[in-house]
Amino acid sequence: MPVEFLTDEQAAGYAAFRGAPSRSELERFFFLDDADRELVESKRRAHNRLGFAVQLTTVRFLGVFPEDAASVPVEVVDYLAGQLGIADSTVLEAYGEREKTRFEHMWELRRLLEYREFAEVEAELRAWVDARAWTTGEGPKALFDAAVGWLRERRVLLPGVTTLARLVASVREAANQRLWDTLYGLLNTGQRAVLDSLLVVPFGQRVSELDRLRRGPVRVSGPQMKWSLERAREIADLGMGELDVSGVPPRRLAELSRYGVDGKATLLRRHGDSRRLATLLSTAVHLTTRAVDDALDLLEVLVATKLLARAERDTAKEKLKTLPKVERAGMRLATAFQVVFDTTSEQVDTDTGEVTGPKVATFDAMWEQIEAVIPRQELAAAIAALFELTPPLDSDADEARRAMLVGRFGTVRPFLKLLVEVVDFGATPEGLPVLKALKSLPDLMGRKKVGPAEVDTDLLAGSWRRLVLASPQLEPGTVDWKAYTFCVLEQVHRMLRRKEVFAKNSSKWGDPRAKLLAGEAWEQAKPTVLASLGLPEAAGEHLAARAALLDGTYREVASRLPANAQIVFDDDGRLHFAALEPEPEPASLLELRAAVNAMLPRVDLPEVLLEVFSWTGADQAFTSVTGGEARLRDLHVTIAALLVAHGCNVGYTPVIGGLDALKYGRLSHVDQTYLRLETYRAANATLIAAQASIPLAQAWGGGLVASVDGMRFVVPVPSVYARPNPKYFGRRGGATWLNLINDQAAGLGGKVVAGTPRDSLYVLDVLYDRDGGRRPDMIVTDTASYSDIVFGLLTLAGYTYAPQLADLPDQKMWRIDRATDYGAFQDAARGRVDLARVERHWEDILRIIGSIHTGAVRAYDVIRMLSRDGRPTPLGDAIAHYGRISKSLHILRLADEPGYRRQIKTQANLQEGRHALARKIFHGRAGQLYQNYQDGMEDQIGALGLVLNALVLFNTRHMDAALTQLRADGFEVRDQDVARLSPFVRHHVNIYLDTLRPPSGMMPACLRRKPSPEKTPFWHS
Predict the structure, then answer these.
(1) Coil, helix or strand for 712?
(2) Phi then psi for 323, rounded to 5 degrees?
(3) CB neighbourhood size of 2 (10 A)
(4) In this predicted model, what pLDDT tens digit does every residue of 199-214 receive, in sequence order?
(5) In degrees, to the nearest 5, what angle opens at C-alpha 205 toward C-alphas 200 and 208?
(6) pTM above 0.85?
(7) Which residues form the DUF4158 domain (predicted)?
(8) Whole-angstrom Cα distance, residue 846 to residue 515?
(9) Is the distance from CB of 738 to CB of 762 less than 8 angstroms?
(10) Could you give the residue ranges of the DSSP H alpha helices within 154-188?
(11) Cα 149 to Cα 62, 156, 283, 830, distances in angstroms
């Protein structure tokens, strides 16, 4: 019987076999242990023993007793019969002849295994579902599946599908109502009126106040910075950030605010008072900190690109303009000095060795010689030009750039005062002088005379001292307050990035130290964290074991060096590897690849998505942001069309059709209501699990090796969230998609970051924020992701870090004891790991990794906090020393195990293959990302990642079926060839939407139907 949020197929599959269990499921749920065998062997006849075993294992697997033993898949019956020594499994047919026997066995199993009726635990389940719905906000299908798991774990016989579905739906609805009522109850009458006014469209305007306030900055400019700060102040003045919403789970608050940020104001107005105002309150609370985040994001990119970088470029241009004058002046002076040198030095005859006196004897005679070559007035002009065009001798390399920067004061004047007023800055002791100077700037602006006592001269490092205190145009006893302003801003910019200056009313730019576990919270979390990561509370024995491992590895690898032709040492003792020879492709592999590729079905990309949806039910993960149930027919068709539109970067136009599911209004509504980062991730988790269950994917790997790498996108539209990099983006800005892929070719998750930052800053965040799949053990990255601190943090987190080291000869290897002789590694191992330093900081190291592990703080913020201008802090240095042990072990393994190097290379190539496929799919608009805001970038790249995983799953499943067919046909299929097949083939998939649309303008048939789960590949037709 179908229920509201379950499809007919899902309702029919409840508490029933969905095809044959996998091999792993057979071994987990249908293996008979000694206790099971004792129960089974108490039955006399073979059919009763087999029937009893079927009931025993089926209730363990499904949570219900089978109504008819004949409905159990034959694979299960054969597996049980083999364990019981029953040669003919068809004897099970006799089990159903006496129905009372089946009931007697069922009653016996319920008593022996202590299974309970649903009515006994209904109240307990209702409370559990209520707590989960209150804290997580999961959709009804996810809650339903979780409730089924809860009942199975507690040995409760599953109720009817309608009973359980109604319980979940009613409890979830009550939890949602309680959420809305709780937030509504925090508001007084005036605050409710303020929030409702956000939905009003002011006279003469085209959008509501909510639409205006939730739209962040786009362009990078001084006026836009002023507007951004005014927006942040206006949102803060609503007063909603001052309300105590700690009684609401953060995830639920974030979910509601996402609806308020994305939903239409007209839709919000239709809701009842409690839901409408609860949504508006959560949105206002979110926007209070988000607006400050946006303003500081804009400040960071404004200072970096429009001020510092532009001043650098303009300085370089000015230098190029003056270069001809400097060259001419320099040549004149050089020519004159050459005359001086030639005429006033003793002359030596190179043939005879005879030494004679200078050519001239007097000063006037020397000048005659000079003026014969260069007139005196030209020399004077050359000297004057050099004094004018070149910096003083005591200047530094930054003086010209900084002087150019001072000329751009008009860019920062509009927003400096607002910056100090709107952003609630805080600072560490190191950042406190800079913050104090920042807060003093508004008092200095516009004044004609500012004395040295009014500025912090300790901040004037390098050429800033000359520019601020000794500028030529200054009156005696005054300073250049404009130059001082830029001196302070430059340091604020640097301190913000290092988190030495932070914003208390911001989430992204806040103080990461305040988020670290401390005090009672850390003491409570510590046992669980240490047990999870396998780390000891005291460092002594652990560090001794690491030291012994490093020492033993050095000795073992050194002893095998004479037989190792893969490595050599140069005259300086630096380590070099021989290039890895590509593995040859045998004829058997080429034949297998051709045979499998020929058997793949020719399909359109939308058909791939619909077929994958039919296999996995991944489309059910797309739940409404409103929290309500889906009331749209053929929702999977609309979702598939939108995934194609976003994943291929072609927009709505190519997927609009005459069907209701493909009309513009429907597409726009579903896009805004159902497609968002959370639903992409939930759907992706389903695809990852499906990929891992396919035998071919298991032949590629066990899912325990993964790699993180970045894919670059040009962002040609104005955006605060794009950064310049001429190498990758030309004259535009851009963003990077850092994505995680395992050795089964499944994309486990990713993160969109602005520009092209070092991958090492984000690797841990990507790993801890994956969508699904097994936790990988080994992490492969490119050289850009390497640093000693990252080595240390990843090792502490329980990962084996395996970066590619392109500059290997320049890498320093590390040892514990300088006196130990490691043979050929003696010169390469020139660094010393200070274990005492690590031990001194061990408690803080544990607290750092514990805070990252529990999600209390982002790894990105921690790594920034542990480094200052490229130099580690004392704590960062201790973590780096710990990481150097792992780094040295990694290099030794690279030297000793060619297979290890090849494994790293294979995983890196797999990632490159995925990126190449992604480029082909994301072909619209020249492959450029046309999104202004970070949320939009994440959503569109989330669609691309989902389409990629769907295509990989489609290929893997059909390739696996092809291999099965080839084996059955007698084709020689070698395991080593199977492992080298690629899931990234695309010759059989049409991804170009213009060729999908028939002349009528309708979408092709593949978007009008939902393929059967049993769809037969074309070669079986």
Answers:
(1) strand
(2) -55, -45
(3) 14
(4) 998 888 888 999 999 8
(5) 30
(6) no
(7) 5-171
(8) 15
(9) yes
(10) 161-185
(11) 10, 10, 34, 56
